[in-house]
Amino acid sequence: MSDYQTFTADDARLFALTHGDTFRDSDQLEAEEFGDGNLNLVFRVKNQQGRSLIVKQALPYARCVGESWPLTIDRARIEAEVLLRHGRICPQHTVQVLHYDAALAAIVMEDLGQWDILRGALVAGKQFPKLASQMAHYLAHTLFHTSDFVLNGLQKKTEVARFLNPELCLITEDLFFTDPYCNHERNSIHQAILPQARELWHDEALQAEVARLKADFLSKPQALLHGDVHSGSIFVSAEQCKVIDAEFGFYGPVGFDVGSLLGNLLLSYAGQFGLQEDAAAREQQQRYLLGQIETLWQDFASEFSQLMQTQTKESSFANSRYQSFYLQQVLADSIGYAGCELIRRTVGLAHVADLEQIRNEQLRARCERFALALGRQLILQRHGLTTIQQLLTLVQHLPIPA
Ligand SMILES: Nc1ncnc2c1ncn2[C@@H]1O[C@H](COP(=O)(O)OP(=O)(O)O)[C@@H](O)[C@H]1O
Ligand SMILES: CSC[C@H]1O[C@H](OP(=O)(O)O)[C@H](O)[C@@H]1O
């Protein structure tokens, strides 16, 4: 940590100039910090011809809270190494890392600023027809190729050790699985839904199922996860999408990555009741979101099955009955983790624009109650929802609370 110093815009400019071959010494470079995430500094460095790079630096604390929440800067290594690993497996959907400096905890990467961040685009009512099939491809390939289907025991354990990431995992363990189910000071709960939040704190049946999901998060190193596939971590255009921000990566349950994205599509669905006043437009956007959820699972399941059938290296796992069982269990896990994401984004520390941008407070409260009710049903019913169509039916029939 001795060489570490927090970057100014000028430091970021020099860092981008020195690393990678995007810029020339003669370039007039401008740099500005524009990060809006919870944890890190993010700078854009650009020359006068319009070429640009992103410099991301981990702070020794969580940006959204300040120095009172110290946090390892090793998260920059995890982020760079996960993105490099996933980038080798699926370059078309992973942001390109150009350089990583361990002492400065800083990464140089390609600038995706010409595309939209998925969350904001969905809030604005935009649609991206190829999103789900491309994300299904990214998830199936990155997760399969880092799993026991491909790695032998020695390789796998080396990888698990390299990506232990205890401090960032602890944040997820707390924010996803602990805080929303008790009266924790980190929670952020709008007054109007306090009664529904309190119900969570006394719902033993729900807490038991969340405990099972948390235990799996702690002890099921199935594959190298991105660890935080939310719609703020996906850049998207009409033709393409790419994932950023992998600092929560570790070896965990495959369903956590799939479920995080499912949960974020459902958060967008819930927010539509408050964001879109025109009923026809709202229904159309919600139909789009449900279609994307269906495609996400169908394409993921079909690509993952294909990979299991054709590229499994460990003979025990070549068994087709085992492979069906594995996929069924990934679906149940994904639905459960999607439920956790819905709940933690509604009453936990880190909220999302899909709900926060609803200006009418009463309407927002109704959407939040919907998100909580849906999250609860997904967690409780996940083992009974054996097809994605059953999940879609549940969503469509869930009453919109008063
Ligand atoms: N490769 C990139 N291209 C363009 N903008 C980026 C890139 N990476 C990050 N950003 C911008 O910085 C913001 C914060 O980045 P993120 O990786 O989510 O930081 P944090 O780890 O603090 O959450 C993003 O919302 C986006 O606006
Ligand atoms: C104190 S971290 C809260 C929250 O923020 C992370 O997301 P991001 O870095 O993309 O802003 C992650 O989802 C954490 O749970």
TrEMBL record:
GO biological process, one term: L-methionine salvage from methylthioadenosine
Enzyme class at the top of the EC tree: transferase
Residues given in the record as ATP binding sites: N40, K56, E110, D111, L112, D245, A246, E247
Pathway: Amino-acid biosynthesis; L-methionine biosynthesis via salvage pathway; S-methyl-5-thio-alpha-D-ribose 1-phosphate from S-methyl-5'-thioadenosine (hydrolase route): step 2/2
Keywords: Amino-acid biosynthesis, ATP-binding, Kinase, Methionine biosynthesis, Nucleotide-binding, Transferase
Catalysed reactions, semicolon-separated: 5-(methylsulfanyl)-D-ribose + ATP = 5-(methylsulfanyl)-alpha-D-ribose 1-phosphate + ADP + H(+)
Keyword Transmembrane helix: no
Amino-acid biosynthesis keyword on record: yes
Domain Aminoglycoside phosphotransferase: 31-287
Biological function: Catalyzes the phosphorylation of methylthioribose into methylthioribose-1-phosphate.
Quaternary structure note: Homodimer.
Protein name: Methylthioribose kinase
Source organism (scientific name): Alkalimonas amylolytica
